[in-house]
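Troubleshooting log. The previous run stalled partway through. Resubmitting the same two chains, unchanged.
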Amino acid sequence: MSDFSRDNLSDFVRDVMIVARQEAHRMRHYFIGVEHLFIGLLEIKGGITTSLLADEGLLIEYVIDAIRRRTGKGSRDRIWPDLPDTPRAKIIMGIAQELAFEEGRKNIQERDLLMAILEENDNIPVRVLNALGINMPVFRENARTRQVKRSVTGTFTKIDIAATFEGDLDHDQMFILRRMFHGYSEVRIEARLTRGFSSAVVLIATPIHADQRADASVVVKIGPSDAIQEEAIRYDRYVKNTLPPLTARLEDRPIAPDNSNYAALKYTLLTDTQGQAMDLGMMLNDWTALELGKWLYDQLYRTFGDRWWKQSRKYVFEAWKEYEWLLPPALTLQYIDTPDNTPVPPGTTIIKPGKRPKLDEVEYGAIVQVANYIVQKVDPDKGTIWLALGDGMNTPRASEIEVTNIDFSQDTYFRGEAVEKIYGRVWRTRHERLLDAVRALQPDFDLKGEFISVNQHRLPNPLRSYMIMLEHPVEGMLSVIHGDLHPGNILIGPNHSALLIDFAHTRNGHTLFDWANLEVSLLAEIFTKNIRPDWSGVREVFEHIYAAYRGQTVHEGDPIEALAIQQLVGSLRRIVRECVSSPNKLTEFYIGVFFCSMRAVTWENTLSLAGRRLLFLLAALAVEQFRDEMKPDSKDKSSNATATDQTRSGEA
Amino acid sequence: MQVTIMFMSGVDDGRSLHFESETDGQFVHDEWTIRMGREGDNDIVLRDRFTSRHHARLLWKQDSWWLEDQKSTNGTFVENDDDFFNDTRVQLLPLQEGQLFRVGRTWLRIEVSAPL
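Second attempt completed without errors. Output:
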């Protein structure tokens, strides 16, 4: 084993050492281990290590966080002086030195250090890379032979935007497209699919060879890199083996350039005979409600149902476990820096996993200690982290808490970290956020009471209902669900077949979540398009929804929307009734409709005012329906319904 | 009998400790115990704030190694085959040679003993 001297380091590896020390300090480890060296290799852009991982479709930040999760953050109390190297780090530096000598060099370069870590093969970074699915022999061979490239070379892929394409592509998006279609002479951007409410861009692109031969079009999704990474993981875990034979499939690993905050995924696309690709959102204008409803049942539900929604089992849960994450954070805290062994200040509210905390009762200004919550998201620029009870993959992402005013130069937080303890002062509550969102709708009814008046109906006030709804036990069904089922994620394939894309939220969950979400988004999207944005226009549409929900019959002379809504709601109910845990009991569905509607009420930037107004009323109606069904004998007691359950019409 | 335990994380990562039943740990009635914890009287002293004073022990009995938690605060774990990031907490578990286990935040491993 060669000893190495810190004088024998290339400039690059010298920088790696500096980053490794910083990382050790930030993580309160107070030693230099292989994990810190490897993170050093990852944090310096433009090296071999980052480019190899980008080729594997792994986002650098994701790998760093995975290593941090594996080791965990240390305590602020130090139990030894200085910053010693671990025995294994010394061994690895020795191997790196030998590799340099073999090449006739004294200086240890990036590749020497990387190869030493990979050859030692028994350290934390290698264990993490294995767990992330990297084929280590291949990776090692690539590390040995990869040329250092400071910029992307080769042919320049031209981006050609079709005349029919609406909107712009920014620099980052073009960069990713070029990276994705590297080797083609041209890529034609055919269309932009209508999107739901996420920040991702979804395009249909056709790659073209130098001889003008076009390959099959694909769906490209470009979005924030952590979301894209998550989608690829969920696709592997939940989707890959459950798809019908003919559908959109994820191709390759994601493209995650190491110098961009964006990443991209590519789905195969099946087009209709004219080569047209469209999502359900584009068809909404062409189809009647009856056609739409029939298609949803015959194509969408039947195609995916066998492997997803119909493969369900009984699932009893409290509503918050599945639905709380749709609401704004329960609390926003301003961070209070507190040394590790500080006694808990008197009057502190302690929030920890176990019994569900009554976060809605904590008041402005109160001091809160949050213990053992999981970091969901980190925004160092805003000095903010988001904590929740679980990670959303295996455990529910509930009881979200936002912590602001964190100084990231002093402290580090990473996605997936279980934060032992953090203190903050409450400066915003969920109730305030919801109240603000509803006030922005400029309601012409009182928000203070238990009820709101809409048309001639007296409906439960959603703002006074959500806390009770969260606590409600639900007897439902559990299955694989898409997790974000709305018209922008549903594509129409050959012969009007149904294809799905966007699996960033796919998981095992409450089966009816998908159908509540789809119903809410369809109602808002279709029926608020051409209405007067004032309350009278919204009330009119709502009245039709009310009638459909209450099972009232449509009369001759009623507006065409009344019939359309009845037909759409009716066909969705047919699916819903096949997915409930006990026949004719829709309480679990109304819980879903309530929370999906309440979520949309807070989408000030992405959903129209009329849409948000309508969904607030729909939330109220969902509570009403829920309460009605909860009554011992709901059929006799439906207070203001004019029709009984048997006449719930519109069903096929 | 002999065994080698290697540190797989933390400040001592890569260090290996060699034990002999005749001189190290406690050997009573064909059962050999190696104790692990933060306190100096353990056979393996862990420099880890997340370990308890007497955290866990390794037992050799019935021709195999067992890992036993000693009511520690932060737990004793083995790797979870289904989810790399959610380790499985153990009370008493037989260990395979070469299997990683975690005492507090420190990962350790029983090395495959070299044939004589």
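Takeaways: The longest helix of chain A spans residues 609-630. The first strand of chain A starts at residue 158 and ends at 161.
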